[in-house]
Design brief:
Layout lengths: L4 E6 L4 H11 L4 E7 L8 H4 L4 H4 L7 H10 L4 E4 L6 H15 L4 E4 L9 H8 L12 E3 L12 E3 L3 H15 L3 E11 L14 H4 L4 E2 L7 H13 L4 E8 L6 E9 L5 H11 L6 E3 L15 E8 L2 E8 L3 H15 L17
Helix pairs in contact: 1-11, 4-5, 7-9
Length: about 350
């Protein structure tokens, strides 16, 4: 495909929406057609995202009505939804209805949680409210690009950021039969994972120079992780997940531990990971411990591993706003439009952040 693809961003002024705008600005074949904010239509995008003024100095947020009209007129478009869970499903449904009336064919990648489950009942069991558009669920697949080679749905739901890191570390262990299907996960996330609206968990005086757990063994992403792992491996695995809040803005570090099915050493385990991800351009398996500073602001994930007797540990780091959200979404959209999976995503990490 050589023509320019109009990109539409839903989710207004959030951190993930800002990261999507940054990636679209550098994409060789996508160009921003609209960014929607019903709360701030007509306001300057550069006011909400001052770091993007060089790319979007004259761009303004548009209303849902204006975006629906645009999607109904564009023969094709790439819709990225970074709206909050609970609101995204109905919003996407409304835009797709407009496209259907106009005879156009947009592709959607949803970064919220609304289309990650196969049934409305499974979604409601986790989020405690009815799904906003249950009839649309069969139109979405949910997986990481590294774990699903072909997609038979027109749209995709990208797993969450903690889920992305955990799945990258866990799926090879399960798929290759290296470990038992009980995995212990400890993850640390930066403050941007809590979103742009200030809350106690992201307030700088409380979070600075501190690390603490939240929702241990009861985090809402656990059913999503288990479902994606089952789809990728065919294994019903149990995940004992303890998330932590870290004193940094961007990035996730996850450590997955499990009992080996037979003793192997570190070299064997790292070799198995390297072979499993040999065709994955954004996953790098290394001998040394992965560090968040080496991946921040990039779409790359770094993995390493250790083994001792019957215990295996796999460590994974990724940027929660990029590989865990906006970058992973662009990676999926590239595939949906038949573009090289790496298009617009090969910028190295920022370093020294």
């Amino acid at each position: 495909m050589s023509e320019t693809i109009p990109a539409v961003v839903l989710g207004g002024t959030g951190y993930v929406a800002g990261e999507l705008l940054r990636l679209i600005a550098g994409h060789p074949q996508m160009k921003l057609a609209a960014i929607m904010s019903d709360s701030q239509p007509g306001e300057s995008v550069a006011k909400a995202f001052p770091h993007l003024v060089s790319a979007y100095g004259d761009t303004r947020f548009q209303s849902q009505t204006a975006v629906e009209k645009l999607v109904a007129e564009l023969p094709q478009s790439a819709i990225f939804c970074a709206a909050p869970h609970g609101a995204a499903a109905a919003l996407i449904d409304s835009l797709l209805q407009s496209a259907e009336r106009g005879g156009t064919r947009p592709r959607v990648v949803d970064i919220s949680a609304d289309y990650r489950y196969r049934s409305a009942e499974a979604y409601q069991a986790v989020y405690k409210h009815p799904h906003g558009a249950p009839a649309r669920l069969p139109q979405f697949s949910c997986a990481l690009p590294e774990h699903k080679k072909t997609v038979d749905t027109p749209h995709v739901a990208h797993p969450g950021c903690f889920a992305s890191a955990t799945l990258l570390a866990s799926v090879p262990l399960l798929a290759l039969g290296l470990t038992q299907p009980l995995l212990f996960v400890a993850g640390v996330t930066g403050s941007t994972g809590s979103g742009r609206k200030p809350v106690e968990g992201t307030h700088h005086p409380l979070r600075h120079s501190d690390v603490y757990t939240y929702n241990p063994l009861s985090h809402r992403h656990v059913p999503e992780i288990a479902a994606c792992a089952r789809a990728a491996t065919g294994v019903d695995a149990e995940f004992a997940f303890i998330p932590h809040s870290g004193p940094f803005a961007r990035g996730i570090h996850v450590t997955v531990q499990a009992q080996l099915t037979k003793p192997v050493d570190k070299a064997h385990l790292i070799g198995a990971l390297k072979e499993f991800y040999s065709g994955a351009p954004f996953v790098r398996v290394q001998d040394t411990a992965p560090r968040i500073k080496d991946i921040v602001a990039s779409n790359y994930a770094h993995l390493s591993a250790a083994a001792n007797g019957r215990t295996a540990a796999v460590m994974c780091v990724l940027d929660n706003l990029n590989k865990g959200a906006a970058g992973g979404a662009v990676q999926w959209m590239n595939r949906l439009f038949g573009l090289p999976e790496t298009a617009g995503l090969t910028t190295p990490a920022a370093g020294w952040t």
